[in-house]
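Example A, followed by Example B.
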Amino acid sequence: MTRIDLPQGTLDLLILKTLALTPLHGWAISERIQQISDDVLQVQQGSLYPALHRLERRGWIKARWGTSENNRRAKYYELTRAGRNQLDTQQDSWRKLTAAIAQVLQTT
């Protein structure tokens, strides 16, 4: 399967969407994105954690310490109300952008 590099800003949207259902720790976020995308999207730890910190600084997610499935201490991230609003805004923008790109690509 060919890996696809994510356009800038897309990772934030994927993280927000992944956290919309349930709080997760960092490793689980990257695993979930990879699983849902059938291994096409692979988020490297070097990209994930700076993105999580950026989203936390913006107030779109919040973090708390908890215990992971394998009994290790882990930081769990969850959406805030502002994050949910941002997710809605970004999803709408993404749909408009991809529809416009698809329209251009279909032109012969």
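Example B, a separate protein, is given below in the same form.
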Amino acid sequence: MNKKIKNIFVEGPITPSSIAKSIENHQTKSMIGAHNIFLGQVRADIIGKKKIIAIEYSAQIEISNQLCHEIREAAFLKYDLTCMHIYHSIGKVKAGEICFFVFVSSSHRSPVFQSLEKIVNEIKDRLPIFGKEIFDDKTYQWKVNN
């Protein structure tokens, strides 16, 4: 497990074009037969009478990247994965925009189906990433992951 620790953080929303580019980059990898993708999107939830218009993400970046590296390496050991990409937004992301992107690939479909939910849940459970929900009246509250 001597692989370089990757920075998973992207400033602002994860754009549809960057997601498409990531998919496009895998077309040359002809030993891959299956992909699975999770996209987390900011919801415009109504809490009380206030509507969420954005979430401002912050994180303990070094710790988050280390923990994500451990999750990633454990997944490669447990599942027959060929490739994995993980990105999470930092900063302000408006309702409707993508804030979390996990992309796994394998030669067959079973490993991508088995691994993705576990990877996403571990990241959400273990990484010190914090979201400040910003309401339409300009007030805010700290987000509780669920």
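On Example B: The helical segments are 16-25, 61-78, 109-126.
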